[in-house]
Amino acid sequence: MDEILETMAVVAADPLAYARQWKKETQGRVIGLFPMHFPGELAHAAGALPVILQEDDEPITVGQAQVFNFYCGYNRSIIDQALRGEFEVLDAILFGDHCVQLLGTADVIRASLPKMPILFNQLCSILDAEWAKAETVRTFTQLWKELEALIGQPIAPEQVQASIRLFNRNRALIRQLYDLRRAGEIALTGRQMQDVVKSSMVMDRAQHTVLLEKLIAGLERRGPPTDAVRVFLSGHLCHAPKLPVLDLIEDCGGVVVDDDLYHGFRFVFWDAAETGDPVEALADWYLLRSTKVPCPTRAVKSLDWEDYLLRNVRASGAQGLIVLMAKFCEPHMYFYPEIKEAFDRHDIPHLLVETEHEEMPMETLKTRVETFIEIAKRRMAA
Amino acid sequence: MQMVAEAQERPEARPIFGNGERANRLKATRFGGKLVNDYWESLFAAKEQGKKVVWYNGTYIPPFFHAHDVAWVHGEAWSAMLSAKHREVTAQARGDEKGYDRELCSYARTHIGQLLIELDKIKAGTSDIAPDDPRIETMLKLPPPDMIINAYPYCSSGQQWDDITYRLFGKRVPMMTISIPLLWGGRPDAGYLRGEEWNERSRYVADQLIAMTKFMEEHTGRKFDFDRLSEAMGYVKKAAQLRLEAMDLCTAQPSPASFFDWIVSIAPVNFLPGDQNIVTYFEGVLAECKERIARGEGAVKDEKYRLFFDGMMNWNKVGWLADKFAAVNACVVAGRYTHMSFWQEPELIDVNDPVLGMAQNYLICPNNHGAPIMIGEIEKICDKFKIDGMVMHAARTCRGMTNSQFLIADSAKRHGRQALFFEGDVADESFYKDELLNVRLEAMIEALDAKARAA
Ligand code: SF4
Ligand code: SF4
Asked: Any keyword Transmembrane (chain A) (predicted)?
């Protein structure tokens, strides 16, 4: 099992190195995707390796010439990687989010990689609008056409359905891990869970699925230490949380039992229909996602992120909530006060951790997490 | 991202810089102050007159409200007004207290902070005014919304701002969000006002505007009157044409008006009612520009340099900045915010059937084009007005307008223009760095002098 987790950790640590290796071995196309809502299935059906582009750990150097320091770490890192030439492995990039900072990044990438095909299809962000379905169908139909033009041949609906099935299978297996972890039957750490999910955003899905099947079958059925404080992790949107931050929570006596992270449950919780028109299926998948795990970039009138969190913190038996907020992430900054007030009202321990692309002050953070864990313990004892 | 034009600053506020000259502002714009006051007055009387009130953010959709006889409150205008009157701090502090991070759009923070103060009063059952309350007297009567409409081109922050407003009102006020998507311009036929994407997106927005009229019908119980919309748009179109005509006169050297005059002229083309007054306003501005040209009088004394202002306006600093540039004989002739927005393509509007042309004007706001087309348009403006240099306002909390600024500056340099960046913000004065601007402006002026000497 360690070997499988190690493979996933290596891919998660350097996704573009995996992509380069894959390309060398298969001579196939690699298509970069932007978070957080674009389905990789269409790119996969086009025979390419869809890779969700990730923040890396390098300090921002050349990127400073094209992005202000008051942008989130994800955008700054992506621009820096583009200018460092890291994206040479990519044959195309799919953009389509609504976050204003990502729109700026799209333009910088277009300017700095003029030969790179950019398939830009902005998704409708108002999911409960009357026209949302028709508009989303239009967007994915357009993307389908653009992918066909890119590869120079048609993509059959059956291919897309096959990709949907494979992606569903992959997601379902990761969800199984989540179920086992919530039930206290396995003791995957926060770091390991992130490696599992993040590697699935990068690796050949079939290969990743085989690894997952083995992992689930072989993983030791052993819960985490019983005296550990059960923690729910929320937020962080496009960024994968830094691994030392996840380690720190556990080092301080916590255990992560559930999350709504994009590099976590948010990525896997929802499947597309395997029958019927695949464009419709993907459109429904996109539109219904936020009705399950609310996303602040897609506010839906009838839903509140804090309600979801209150419900799921309870359902997972978590004793506290840690919110990881990437500095300068506007959607998160808008909605955080609602979460804070709801958790205050319900007297559930919660801690806000603002993260930065650059070095985090780990000592200060350690003190804060220790205090949070202490409070949660006292609350349990009371 | 759209804004107000009621910049009234402390009269004593002026930079100690350069030769001490002050901007020679157009006198005709004073009429705008009266119009803005009248607008607020009629808004505060709206409830008494039995009118429904819409709060909206984003692009210039008031002709629809005007036609339907509902009163309207523009969130950005509200924040900009507080900010221009230096009354924003308490509102922002209330937002802070609730947990809104200061890195969040300061328009939104000011507006939401003010809203929270209002709600506090309602909850406490008191309308007493604390001595440090940021509201000017008239704001006391600001009517709460019966509807919320969001129509924010490009910027997700503008959309999320109303998602929060909706929640703060307990989800009891009906809300509609109109999506005005980015014109990416990636297809082979893409260009300014042309191509498949342009046609398709124009229709998409127009359909949503029609849906908005239905939304208003539903929440007022009255039929929408498209004839009245045509009537209002007749005035808007005329005002927009006059504005462009006056702007075009600024190719003259010295320029009769500056970017700061156009900044204070935004309200009439942004949110004031579409009636004869806005036409009269721009007739006045046009006439004064003509008179100045005849006299050889410039917006800046002894104009030596001509600049372009990029980025969102720094609403606390309108007069301050106007004077600062005047003090080095630099006329800021044009800007992205003023010259690429607010009905800048009036000929697209068919007054008899205006909705499609309105949608198209909303789509081409100053940041809603992908960078290549937007920068192409900026370069055209810079060539037309013989611009020597670019002043890039890096508004700290406004990603909507800071996106692409490095690309704009790079392009300017390629076209032989200087570019400087200065830090500030739309409505949060604490981000403004005066010293930095002074040093960079002096360096730019020296470079321009050196270039002139070499020529
Ligand atoms: S992390 Fe937040 S600010 Fe950054 S790209 Fe994602 S949604 Fe936008
Ligand atoms: S960030 Fe800028 S463009 Fe966006 S809502 Fe705020 S002021 Fe408007």
From this structure: no
Domain span holding position B239: 27-454
Where exactly are the structural domains of chain A? 12-153
d(CA A85, CA B59) in angstroms, rounded, equals 38
Mean pLDDT by 10 residues, chain B (455 residues): 41 74 96 93 88 96 98 89 80 93 95 87 63 48 88 95 94 96 95 97 98 98 98 98 98 98 96 98 98 98 97 91 96 97 97 98 93 97 98 97 97 97 94 94 96 90
Chain A partners of B422 at a C-beta cutoff of 8 Å? none
Give the burial class of A303: count Cβ atoms within 10 A of its Cβ; 0-12 exposed, 13-18 middle, 19 or more buried: middle
- Rg of chain A (C-alpha set): 20
Nearest to B370 among A107, A299, A330 (CB): A107
> Is residue A278 in contact with ligand 1, taking CB distance under 6 Å?
no
Q: What is the mean pLDDT of residues A240-247?
A: 97
Residues 315-374 of B with CB under 8 A from A: 370-372
Report yes or no: B421 at the A interface, CB cutoff 8 Å: no
Q: Per-residue DSSP letters for B169-192? A: TTT-S-EEE--B--B---STT-BT
CB contact under 8 A, B160 and A330: yes
The counts of H helices and E strands in chain B are 18, 8
Whether residue A120 and residue B404 make contact (CB cut-off 8 A), yes or no, is no
* pLDDT score recorded for residue B13: 62
* A151 Cβ neighbours under 8 A, 6+ residues apart: A29, A46, A47, A48
CA distance B290 to chain A (A): 40
Of all helices (H) and strands (E), which one includes residue A375? helix A362-381
Q: What is the pLDDT of residue B141?
A: 60
Number of domains observed in the structure of chain B: 1
Interface of B with A in 164-183 (CB under 8 A): 164, 166-167, 171, 175, 177, 179, 181-182
- What's residue B135's pLDDT? 46
Strands A92-95 and A49-52: unpaired
Those residues whose C-beta lies under 8 Å from the C-beta of residue A116, and which sit 6 or more positions away, are A87, A90, A92, A93, A109, A110
Residues A28 and A39: their CA atoms lie apart, in Å, by 19
User: Count of CB atoms within 10 A of residue A187's CB?
Assistant: 17
Fold (topology level) of A12-153: Rossmann fold (3.40.50)
- CB contact at 8 A, A326 and A73: yes
Q: Is B107 in the pocket of ligand 2 (CB under 6 A)?
A: yes
Query: Which of the four pLDDT bands, split at 50, 70 and 90, describes residue A68?
Result: very high
**Does the pLDDT value for residue A106 go beyond 70?**
yes
| Rounded Cα distance, B252 and B262, in Å | 16
Instruction: Judge if the beta carbon of residue B299 lies within 6 A of ligand 2.
Output: no
Let me know: does A62 contact A89? Beta carbons within 8 Å. no
Q: What strands, in cross-sheet order, belong to the sheet with A254-259?
A: A254-259, A229-235, A320-326, A350-355
